[in-house]
């Protein structure tokens, strides 16, 4: 559940964010804020972002700290199960991607590809609270 | 301004202390420096990264700086940084960790008001307001900030010392089937499920049910 992801992230937030020295770039929140996503696009953006984290981020987030690694894999498992549930919405066509959300997600990918993969993955992981804050507020 | 070679020890423990989103930067005096140290402060929005000086906290000798106004958008996250000066030398800039006003603030207990009949007490709870720049500014209840906000309420029978706990989402509670002419004490706490945030319990508000007619 989202609360489990939140609890897992809170336990490693300081550790993960301290590995990201780049203040001037955000993967999720600049230049487009998730908080400006239209309600009709929310399901699609959420589905895209879950796939983004599962397919691109978690696999590049190994650390030398076994506690942190365990928390990351438990967060990844929670994402997998949530993505499966969201996938059902996607299949039933209740999760339509409008032009705006497609554009926003392209920007997120561009932000991600603007960094080397390890830095981009660690920064994305460090921004999980941005995703969770948006999800909790808007869903 | 060209800065001098910075050999002064750094300010320590630079961190945000936040309650109801009143966000104040705090730090400790650099080790081994007595009086006379001055400080300046800057902050940055995460993802933008441009450091912005805080004029009201330039050349100050206190060890805190209120950045509530600069960090009031809780959809953003922030960094702040402090530099010390003494006798013509200076320290390095020392930064906070990333500050998220939404998850890193503490919440005050709710306000509690109680009234009674002979067999029941009615409790009205009010969540604290988000910090605001001035009294004239419109108020935002933390209930609007945290849609999942709930209240945990404790009701104690002063005579029997029996205590009940209730968890409610709306802000009113009527406790029925009580004993007439008996004192009850009420205390309440705010509980936000996600992000996980709990206030302390409010102080107890005691009231007696009316005597039997």
TrEMBL record, chain A:
GO CC terms of this entry: extracellular space
Record GO terms (molecular function): cytokine activity
Cystine bridges: 43-95, 44-97
Compartments where located: Secreted
Organism this protein belongs to: Chaetops frenatus (Rufous rock-jumper)
Protein's job: Immune regulatory cytokine.
Family: Belongs to the IL-10 family.
Name of the encoding gene: Il20
Protein name: Interleukin family protein
Lineage: Eukaryota, Metazoa, Chordata, Craniata, Vertebrata
Keywords: Cytokine, Disulfide bond, Secreted, Signal
TM helices/strands, residue ranges: none
Portion of the full sequence shown: 38 to 176 of 176
């Amino acid at each position: 559940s989202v609360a489990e992801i939140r609890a897992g992230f809170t336990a490693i937030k300081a550790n993960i964010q301290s590995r990201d020295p780049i203040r001037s770039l955000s993967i999720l929140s600049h230049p487009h804020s998730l908080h400006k996503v239209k309600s009709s696009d929310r399901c699609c953006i959420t589905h895209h972002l879950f796939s983004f984290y599962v397919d691109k981020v978690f696999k590049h987030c190994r650390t030398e700290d076994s506690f942190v690694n365990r928390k990351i894999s438990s967060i990844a498992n929670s994402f997998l199960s949530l993505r499966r549930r969201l996938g059902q919405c996607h299949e039933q066509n209740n999760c339509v991607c409008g032009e705006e959300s497609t554009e926003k997600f392209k920007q997120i990918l561009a932000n991600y590809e603007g960094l080397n993969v390890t830095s981009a993955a660690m920064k994305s992981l460090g921004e999980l609270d941005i995703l969770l804050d948006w999800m909790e507020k808007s869903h | 301004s060209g800065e001098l070679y910075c050999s002064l020890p750094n300010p320590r423990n630079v961190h945000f202390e936040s309650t109801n989103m009143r966000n104040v930067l705090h730090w400790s005096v650099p080790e081994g420096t007595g009086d006379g140290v001055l400080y300046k402060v800057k902050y940055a929005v995460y993802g933008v990264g441009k450091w912005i000086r805080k004029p009201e906290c330039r050349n100050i000798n206190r060890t805190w700086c209120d950045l509530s106004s600069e960090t009031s958008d809780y959809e953003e996250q922030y960094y702040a940084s402090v530099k010390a000066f003494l006798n013509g030398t200076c320290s390095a800039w020392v930064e906070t960790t990333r500050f998220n006003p939404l998850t890193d603030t503490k919440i005050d207990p709710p306000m509690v008001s109680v009234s009674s009949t002979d067999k029941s007490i009615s409790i009205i709870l009010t969540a604290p307001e988000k910090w605001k720049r001035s009294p004239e500014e419109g108020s935002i209840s933390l209930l609007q900030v945290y849609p999942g906000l709930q209240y945990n309420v404790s009701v104690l029978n002063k005579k029997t010392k029996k205590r009940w706990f209730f968890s409610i989402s709306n802000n009113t509670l009527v406790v029925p089937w009580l004993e007439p002419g008996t004192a009850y004490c009420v205390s309440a706490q705010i509980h936000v499920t996600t992000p996980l945030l709990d206030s302390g319990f409010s102080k107890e508000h005691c009231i007696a049910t009316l005597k039997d007619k």
